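Predict the assembly for these two chains.
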Amino acid sequence: MNILPNEHKNKPFERAKKNVSSKQDVVYKELSFWKDARLRFYQNKGAVLGMIFIFIIVLFAVLGPLISSHTYKSIETDHINLPPRIPIIEKIGIFDGESDGMNVYKENNLENVYYWFGTDNLGRDIWTRVWVGTRVSLYIAILAVVIDMFIGIGYGLIAGYIGGKLDSGMQRFIEILSGIPNLVVVTLFVLVFNPGILSISLALVITGWIGMSRVVRSQVLKLKELDFILASKTLGAKTPTLLFVDLLPNIFGQVIIMSMFSIPNAIFYEAFLAFIGLGLQPPMASLGVLINDGYKSILVYPHIIATPVIVLGILMLCFNLVADGLRDALDPKMKEL
Amino acid sequence: MIKYILNRIVLSFLTLLIILSVLFMLLEFMPGSPFNDEKLKIEQKELLYKKYGLDKPIHERFVIYLKNVVVKGDFGVSYAIEKNVPVTKILKDRMPISIRLGIQALIFGTLIGIILAFISAIYKNTIWDSITTVIAIVGISIPSFVFAIGLSYYLGYKLPKLLHFSLFPLTYDIDNVFKSSILPTIALSMFVIATVARFMRTELVEVLGSEYILLAEAKGLNSKKVIFRHAFRNAVIPVITVLGPLTVGLMTGSLVIERIFTIPGIGDLLVTAISVNDFNIVIAISFFYSMFYIAVVLIVDILYGLIDPRIRIAKGEQ
């Protein structure tokens, strides 16, 4: 039985057979770091697929609510709990407005009415609500990146570059801050500012940048001792030049990876808080709110919960795939987080 | 090493003290009071405030509170959920249920995660590797409450309808604790499985490519012995470091999963307490969560220093 990986299948030592390729030196074409990274990223099928799906979801989130004749909170009391029905596709037998073998639309004399994702228990259009909710998730994603980019990098750069007592003080502060579980921070903000997008954003501002600042600091500590910084200093470079021209571009790979990984985390937190009723409040729509709404009537009308769950799942999966792909492309030595 | 450990312990206690003060202060300034009943007259409210000591100045209350918590372990009484019952007593009933669920999920998840990691590292770059990688990334991506909803809908509701008998109870059943904890445990452990599997796979692949494995092979050990005696031990140590993030995942997960499966644990209690402004319970649970998390991180750091000599040396040099 051979259960070792492929490269161990051969004997450890083996006589090199004479062949042409081992005699010739292979000359590789020179590639810049970013071009090389881009090529590696494109080879990763999962990451490219993730990228495409994120693009599609963003497109729908922007356009979806616009092409619908309903707003996310318009209530139609005659149209409650309708299953999904999409023109043209309904002829194939899916999304035809049937549930348990009955066409709910025909029974209610709504022959010409189409709700692409159906309606919820107040008669609101799920299509509009899902895409408005996706906008909230995307807003959270952007916010997470912005926080990482500004607070995380700023804090890490200052601590790493200046060093000394200031650095150790800043590190103690971070240690204490990271000792507080995220959940507790969010709980506090929800209590003080009431459930909503504001308290989630503030909780992100407090805790979202810690990982990034640690990475930036350790990289700066490592890089600032190197000769090219010394050379730059000798040539008379001022601190801003050193920070933003010499140091920052060298750690940009790690920065991108870290901020990509913070996106799915942030989206998860928003959805999770909304689901337990501590996030956005109805009639506002976010994917978590929609899942919570749908969950209340899941046994009777499973279609209400289906779409938000699928969109949230795909969104999270895609961001994770892209983050994984970026990590493999930009920093192959970095370990799985 | 001893200096390092002492340093860490002091810092942990400092963190806990700060958390407790912040919790107390923030809850002081939050809108809403435990007596939101509109029927209460102002005089009645004043009486109630006096009864619970809420009329004293804030610094006095904080000192009293700190004394109660640190010396007696007393978090006051519940204002809304179970009126006048000590918070500690409410938590005592619910804590074991949550801890049990968490530990079950942790053990189950770690075991499955390690098995998956083994499969994908040994059969690297085959279909088995791809399957386990997909399982891992799905487990990381899909939120635990979505898993919980899916499990309770398909296994708790649809499957019994199909088979005409129920395998797993849909909601928590006090008479049948183990059976009703199966589905929540699976839902909660998906995150653990995925994290452990991803992390351990990387470690295993690295270890299997190292020279001492080559040496072990060279001295003629069979591949089973190489893997279980040499590779496994070295690859499993770094998994300890993910215990911190896993604890966080289990805590947040428990909030929703206890709600979905109606388990009377502390996660569900926290959500209820926040919505009815029962702030003694909120403080107590937040404090316990923080304490637990800090303890796990501390133990992980110390353990890791003890197990891995390289880290010990690096710390000593500083």
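Residues 126-162 of chain A form the longest helix (37 residues). Strands of chain A lie at 98-99, 102-103.
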